[in-house]
Amino acid sequence: MARNWLKLGAQELHVVDLDGAFAGAPRHLKVVREIVSSVGIPVELGGGLRTDGDIEEALATGVSRVILGTRAFADPQALARLVQRFGKQIAVGIDARNGFVQVKGWVETTSTRATDLARMAADMGVATLIYTDTATDGMLAGPNLSAMDEMCRAVSCRVIASGGVSAPEHVQALVNLGHANLFGAIVGKALYEGKTTLPELIHAATR
Predict the structure, then answer these.
(1) Model pTM?
(2) Which residues contact 138 (CB under 8 A, 6 or more apart)?
């Protein structure tokens, strides 16, 4: 599948170890290593990276960056230390509903605004944020444009949009926000269900 996306023009791959996310520790690092070696483009990995050892093992597979979610929120000191050690290889995933951070697999909604967590992470030197609007994720109805606009205005680091992007017009709408730091968009379900094609989405992003 990874080679298929590469053939269709993918410039980066987003991989989530779902078993690892539920288990609290990586479960598919062997597969991730095979993906990295077979595509030759940047791969980012999230899911179950709860300890420094997990992060070290994940980065040893050759991924370009690892994504910290709940840990980044729960332990800012650890985040600062990891960014100091690994630099741009540390990305932070921010999941939010109605503008407030959600953790523990979206089960718990906190009182922290997503933009506040983003600013904190950016101030620590985090180079990439993956912002997921959980209300739109998997709904195939388009991204939360106002939330993405607010997030991109809040920080100067790179922001990747996640949630609801499922058609060329959704990509075009993100481009039309006009933010230089809006680095990309994650598309999964829409591609696997044949709602759109990767070349169509890439064309919308570059025209």
Answers:
(1) 0.94
(2) 163, 164, 189
